[in-house]
């Protein structure tokens, strides 16, 4: 007993004295500066991307409100709006991951409100006929980017121009403008919060517990990734439990036929976050550099990056010419490898990374022991 | 416990943990214990809070103690993904509180009926708590005598640097030798503290160690009320029973009580050893892991992909676990074989109800333990829908 006590005391004393004599370097393992990582993510990735998306949403909103009074829009006018929407949808992929903090609204999150797909064409037409642009309901598939895709891309260009022309079609023009405005308002609130008060809060909460920014970023990186894997790929492919066949219409941006490049854009954005690099080639501290400072981190980096390459190869093998909706109905076997490789990456980004970094895997707090 | 209940309610955990989930993971043999939903669960917590208050104030003590024990244990039995060693400890202590007369002095019961007042209590009523606490510490301590804990300092080597943002002690967390210091101190503390608390000469310093140890771990880890519970409970070591003969409370001479205590104690001593009945590495298979005071021993996480196959068409589909489970349930399920099996059975029944005839359910479960690369936890080809739950060894669990 005496021995245990002496050990206990000696250890305690040793601990205290050695701690006090530590000058902050030399005896420490490489302490990772998580605030620097969060600052990099905020300043180099999130805020610039938010600003781009904000500006594009504003452009779409303005173009569509210009359309309201235009009873005879030209093909070029519609095309301009259409390509502005496509550019917005494309850049939107770079902020899908950041669906936390200011993106969590009382009436659903930013991603839920803007990116729910597929569009519900019947309900949209019903709202247009009744002239209802209140959006006071939870039918998120009647607004957002998928609704704009339906409104501007379903049918031949001539049919679409005709549908927007004349006094009789004013409701369609008003509805389109209302959808675009709602998207802009939603994004603008989030973007201004990031450029304003949320940035500092995000950087300061640099712990690893539930609710910290590190935990939020990690968890939402995985939530966004699951969205990509489960809804943008597995759903149309018919790989979800209970599906009896492929469902080609259940793709993001079905009418424009752009779902494959959009899925790729979201994946590339997640990879940029992993590497800590901007699309322009600028770099900043990331989960990858964080992993370099912990035991077994290098091994996980190697495994992860081999798998990222495998996913990229699976994307490349599909090309960009055939829409995903066509591929899953004519040649589903060609899309299978993409799903398989995406699935394999999950364990590296989810359980292994959280485990090596000691990050809380749940975003709501709870007790452990 | 009053604070604990109020905290649980205030944090919205009733709704999150017991009302929203579409399925729960009951303990084997307790499948009949189901959540009462809303508002039933709020009533349970309301009653539990009142009962805890009753115990604290010594008001209608016997009834309060029994009600608290039943409510608390009921809640814990609903879903084992919420299992925590300290919840189990609270349940055990609540059970013991039902047996002892902890309301015979400074209580509302005595104020109501002064004849209840006694000047001393029998030694056994204190000893039973001391033994229980001693077992917790001692078993927690010997569970730490492993090469992983003492030589590799895992998982502390992962956890401590992650705490570098703590105020005051944060910067110390990245000292390279600290995980080993914590590992050895933790082990020595756990193994020795019950004995040090028992001896009068070492009691003071041991209690100081209790406060420091639980204070530090409470700051560092998300372990809720556990540190407070232990700091308060160990105070029992400072009290002695009465030597006076005119004690008018039940004594162990009461045969029933004697037997209850004896059986309770034997169970407490033997249950932590039941893992020896299973082959394989305990931390990996977790067969015999719960109820054995193994705390902080592992950083474990899994990614589980369930595949449901329609036997008629051969079509396979992947399950989105989040459709059935909350995040905490999914996290726990993804690394523990018995929960994986329960979830597989749920999936079988769910998709059968949707029209699939006896679907085959398999799972690819990748688990990482204490920083090691992920490995498959279970046989990915085995149809889990037709594997039985039980206390037998699961032969579909792979060795590492």
Low-confidence parts of chain B lasting 5 or more residues at pLDDT below 50?
none
Mean pLDDT of chain A comes to 90
Approximate helicity band of chain B: 40-55%
**Count of strand segments of chain A:** 2
- Principal-axis shape of chain A equals globular
Distance between the termini of chain A: 27 Å
Identify the most extensive interface between protein chains.
Answer: A-B, 67 and 78 residues
Portion of residues within helices of chain A: 55-70%
Q: By helix and strand content of chain A, what is the structural category?
A: mainly alpha
Major sheet size, sense and barrel closure of chain B: 4 strands, antiparallel
Order of helices and strands of chain B: HHHHHHHHHHHHHHEEHHEE
Q: Strands of the largest sheet of chain B, in order across it?
A: 2-1-3-4
| Count of separate DSSP helical elements of chain A | 15
Structural class of chain B: alpha+beta
Span between N and C termini of chain B?
A: 40 Å
pLDDT < 50 runs, ≥5 residues of chain A: 1-28
Characterize this entry briefly.
The complex is a heterodimer of chains A (369) and B (400). Chain A has helices at residues 2-21, 34-68, 75-92, 110-115, 121-130, 144-153, 157-164, 170-195, 197-204, 213-237, 259-275, 287-291, 297-318, 324-330, 332-357, and strands at 104-105, 108-109. Chain A is mainly α and 369 residues long.
Structural commentary:
The complex is a heterodimer of chains A (369) and B (400). Chain A has 15 helices and 2 strands. With 369 residues, chain A is mainly α. Chain A has a two-stranded antiparallel sheet. In chain A, a hairpin with a 2-residue loop joins strand 1 and strand 2. The relative contact order of chain A is 0.12. In chain A, helix 5 packs across helix 8. By secondary structure, chain B is α+β, with helices and mostly antiparallel strands. Chain B has 16 helices and 4 strands. Chain B has a 4-stranded antiparallel β-sheet with strand order 2-1-3-4. In chain B, a hairpin with a 5-residue loop joins strand 3 and strand 4. Chain B is globular and about 75 Å long. Chains A and B meet through helix 1, helix 10, helix 13 and helix 15 of A and helix 9, helix 10, helix 11, strand 1 and strand 2 of B.
């Amino acid at each position: 007993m005496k021995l245990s006590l002496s050990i206990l005391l000696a250890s305690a004393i040793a601990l205290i004295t050695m701690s006090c004599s530590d000058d902050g370097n030399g005896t420490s393992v490489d302490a990772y500066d998580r605030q620097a990582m969060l600052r990099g993510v905020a300043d180099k990735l999130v805020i610039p991307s938010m600003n781009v998306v904000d500006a594009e949403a504003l452009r779409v909103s303005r173009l569509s409100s210009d359309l309201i009074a235009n009873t005879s829009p030209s093909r070029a006018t519609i095309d301009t709006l259409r390509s502005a929407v496509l550019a917005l949808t494309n850049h939107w992929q770079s902020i899908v991951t950041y669906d936390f903090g200011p993106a969590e609204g009382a009436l659903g999150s930013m991603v839920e409100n803007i990116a729910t797909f597929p569009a519900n064409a019947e309900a949209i037409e019903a709202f247009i006929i009744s002239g209802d642009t209140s959006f006071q309901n939870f039918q998120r598939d009647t607004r957002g980017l998928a609704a704009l895709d339906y409104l501007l891309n379903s049918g031949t260009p001539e049919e679409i121009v005709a549908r927007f022309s004349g006094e009789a079609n004013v409701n369609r023009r008003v509805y389109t403008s209302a959808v675009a405005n709602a998207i802009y308002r939603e994004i603008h609130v989030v973007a201004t919060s990031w450029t304003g008060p949320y940035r500092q809060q995000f950087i300061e909460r640099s712990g690893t517990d539930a609710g910290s920014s590190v935990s939020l970023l990690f968890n939402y990186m995985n939530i966004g990734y699951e969205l990509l894997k489960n809804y943008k790929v597995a759903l149309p492919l018919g790989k979800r439990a209970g599906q009896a066949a492929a469902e080609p219409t259940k793709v993001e941006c079905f009418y424009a036929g752009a779902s494959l490049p959009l899925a790729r854009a979201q994946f590339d954005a997640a990879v940029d976050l992993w590497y800590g690099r901007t699309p322009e080639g600028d770099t900043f501290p990331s989960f990858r550099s964080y992993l370099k400072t912990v035991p077994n981190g290098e091994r996980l980096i190697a495994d992860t990056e081999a798998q990222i390459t495998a996913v990229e190869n699976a994307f490349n093998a599909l090309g960009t010419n055939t829409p995903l909706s066509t591929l899953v109905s004519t040649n589903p076997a060609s899309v299978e490898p993409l799903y398989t490789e995406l699935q394999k990456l999950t364990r590296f980004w989810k359980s292994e990374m959280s485990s090596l970094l000691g990050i809380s895997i749940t975003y709501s707090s709870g007790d452990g022991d | 416990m009053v604070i604990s209940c109020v905290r649980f309610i205030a944090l919205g955990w009733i709704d999150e943990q017991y009302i929203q989930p579409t399925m729960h993971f009951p303990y084997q043999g307790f499948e009949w214990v189901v959540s009462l939903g809303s508002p039933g669960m709020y009533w349970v917590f309301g009653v539990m809070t009142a009962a805890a208050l009753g115990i604290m104030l010594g008001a209608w003590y016997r009834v309060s103690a029994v009600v608290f024990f039943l409510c608390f244990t009921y809640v814990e039995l609903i879903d084992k993904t919420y299992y925590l060693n300290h919840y189990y400890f609270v349940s055990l202590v609540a059970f013991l509180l039902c047996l002892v007369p902890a309301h015979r002095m400074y209580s509302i019961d005595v104020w109501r009926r002064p004849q209840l007042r006694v000047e001393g209590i029998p030694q056994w009523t204190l000893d039973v708590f001391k033994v229980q606490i001693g077992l917790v510490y001692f078993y927690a301590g010997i569970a730490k005598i492993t090469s992983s804990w003492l030589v590799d300092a895992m998982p502390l080597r992962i956890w401590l640097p992650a705490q570098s943002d703590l105020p005051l002690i944060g910067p110390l967390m990245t000292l390279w030798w600290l995980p080993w210091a914590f590992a050895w101190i933790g082990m020595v503390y756990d193994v020795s503290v019950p004995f040090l608390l028992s001896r009068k000469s070492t009691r003071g310093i041991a209690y100081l160690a209790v406060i420091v140890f639980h204070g530090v771990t409470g700051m560092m880890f998300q372990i809720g009320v556990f540190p407070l519970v232990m700091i308060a409970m160990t105070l029992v070591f400072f009290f002695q029973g009465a030597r006076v003969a005119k004690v008018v409370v039940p004594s162990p001479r009461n045969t029933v009580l004697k037997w209850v205590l004896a059986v309770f104690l034997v169970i407490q001593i033997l249950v932590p050893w039941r893992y020896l009945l299973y082959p394989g590495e305990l931390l990996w298979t977790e067969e015999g892991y719960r109820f054995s005071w193994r705390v902080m021993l592992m950083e474990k996480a899994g990614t589980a992909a369930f595949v449901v196959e329609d036997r008629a068409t051969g079509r396979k589909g992947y399950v989105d676990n989040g459709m059935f489970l909350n995040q905490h349930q999914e996290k726990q399920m993804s690394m523990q074989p018995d929960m994986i099996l329960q979830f597989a059975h749920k999936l079988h029944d769910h998709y059968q109800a949707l029209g699939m005839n006896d679907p085959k359910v398999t799972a690819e479960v990748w688990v990482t333990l204490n920083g090691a690369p992920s490995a498959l936890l279970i046989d990915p080809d085995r149809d889990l829908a037709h594997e039985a739950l039980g206390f037998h060894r699961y032969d579909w669990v792979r060795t590492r």
